[in-house]
Amino acid sequence: MQVLDGKTVAHAVKQEIKEKLINFKKNGGKTPHLAAVLVGNDGASETYVASKIKNCEEIGFKSTLIRFEENVGEDELLHTITVLNENVDIDGILVQLPLPKHIKEEKVINLINPDKDVDGFHPSNVGRLVQGLPAFIAATPYGIMLMLKHYQIETTGKHAVVIGRSNIVGRPMSILLSQNMPYGNCTVTLCHSKTKNLKAMCLQADIIVAALGKPEFLTGDMVKENAIVIDVGINRVKDDSKKKGYHLVGDVKYDEVAPKCSYISPVPGGVGLMTIAALLLNTFNASVRNRKLID
Predict the structure, then answer these.
(1) Do 139-272 and 28-113 have the same topology in CATH?
(2) What is the dihedral of CA 180, 186, 191, 197, to 10 degrees?
(3) How do residues 186-200 score in pLDDT, each as one tens digit?
(4) Which CATH code is given to the segment(s) 28-113?
(5) What count of other Cβ atoms lies within 10 Å of the Cβ of residue 234?
(6) Measuring CA to CA, how many Å separate 216 from each of 28, 102, 236, 266?
(7) pLDDT digit string (tens) for 107-126?
(8) Per DSSP, what are the bridge partners of residue 187?
(9) Hey, which residues are catalytic here?
């Protein structure tokens, strides 16, 4: 069993971006600039955004954090996105989800300029992904593909089961794994809360991507020997013995599942780190694309 170490792979991706950035700037390119928008004071969102900003600084990107109170009006938020769209110095825009209930996420996502949509959520980028055209890919699925590439995991002809059908992870992941491309070419089954005989589906899988947001949902009796398991879940479980009052677990019951796997990603230390690495790569690519548009 080999652990898919997100820290190692993310470091390699960030080093690659640093090298590309040196050459880009030598040839007249500017420093990539990411704008992050955070609404409210959700603890998990605060942590994610802070990590994204920190990683930007580490590899030499500029970053701007725009904060709003929980009760910010939808029109004010939309106006801010319009301003960011029009700012030629901003290469990438991300709005941290989830948003408060009085703000329609669809409106916010659809307003972001697709050329600055480094989260890969805009319908234009999703449509291009479906058609196999160049696009910004949602950061978590993109990060998983970068992980498969780093470890050179053969996927062609394998049966992949993706558990979860969200637009952020499950759906794009199923598309990427089925595409005619390196680290794709899988036969993919997309499972969800209405899937019958989910355990039987999982037992047929060579690759399982668990992305349903339920702590330790995937257990040892649901996984066949030598399966590849990618755990996307990051769940906070109450734990009074910890200073923060919680500990993190994935969607996979790691201690049961790991011994049966050929490869498995841990939580923490797995896919979460790759999500940020993929976001940085999207931001660099946005900077390159936006320079071409300006030229």
Answers:
(1) yes
(2) 150
(3) 999 999 989 999 999
(4) 3.40.50.10860
(5) 20
(6) 49, 32, 11, 12
(7) 999 999 999 999 999 999 99
(8) 159
(9) 52, 96, 119
């980028």: which residue's tokens?
125
In 10 A of CB 130, how many CB atoms? 13
**Residue 293, pLDDT score:** 57
The amino acid present at 191, given as its one-letter code, is C
- Domain borders along the chain are 28-113, 139-272
pLDDT at 39 over 50: yes
**Residue with the larger pLDDT of the pair 215 and 42:** 215
139-272 has which fold? Rossmann fold (3.40.50)
Residue type, 201: M
Q: Which residue has the higher pLDDT, 56 or 244?
A: 56
Report the share of the chain in percent with pLDDT over 90.
88
Distance between CA 226 and CA 261 in Å, rounded? 4
- List strand residue ranges (DSSP E) for the chain, in order: 2-3, 33-39, 62-68, 92-95, 159-163, 187-191, 207-210, 227-231, 235-238, 246-249, 261-264
CA distances from 63 to 88, 95, 171, 172, 236 (A): 14, 13, 29, 27, 28
Indicate whether 144 pLDDT > 70: yes
Task: Check pLDDT > 90 for residue 236.
Answer: no
Residue type at 40 in one-letter notation:
G
Distances (CA, A) of 146 to 141, 149, 234: 9, 5, 19
pLDDT for the residue numbered 295? 45
